[in-house]
Amino acid sequence: MSDIDFASNRLSIVSFERIAIATFDDRNSEVGLHIMSPVVKIVRPFGLLDRTKVSKFDEEIESCISEEPDIVLIDFQDVSFMDSSGLGAIVSAIRTVQAAGATLFVCSINNQVKMLLELAGLDKVMKIFANREEFNREILNEDA
What we know:
This protein is an alpha/beta fold. Helices cover 32% and strands 34% of the residues. The chain has four helices and ten strands, in the order ββββββαββαβαβα. The chain has helices at residues 54-66, 84-99, 111-119, 132-139, and strands at 2-5, 10-14, 19-25, 30-36, 40-43, 46-49, 71-75, 78-82, 103-107, 127-129. The longest helix is centred in the middle third of the chain and has 16 residues, at 84-99. The two termini are 28 Å apart. Mean pLDDT is 82; it is low at 1-23.
């Protein structure tokens, strides 16, 4: 995604890994490049992600989006089980995050959650990381 504002001679290039703002000042022909880290919001559900907790999960996603992040990461480290209601909440989160212009990632899923996401084909529409360290390394270019 890129945004060009000709009035201020500012060109912004956005990627998953970094946000780069290239500026050009036509008064003295200076070019600058500033690398900024993306805004990442993390949602950490715990225990069971079922019909009893879906509304709280949805509220957390909406709260994250209200802060206009570039990335939303759902960390499943503390989730022991997810049912079809939880799966529906993940589908809703994908739509909500994408509609806000952000990107959704998931990490630290157990085998049961992994199987459910794969059966629903959600592993093809969002990147799933083994853990938060892998996410930090691949998306934020940070060492663990």
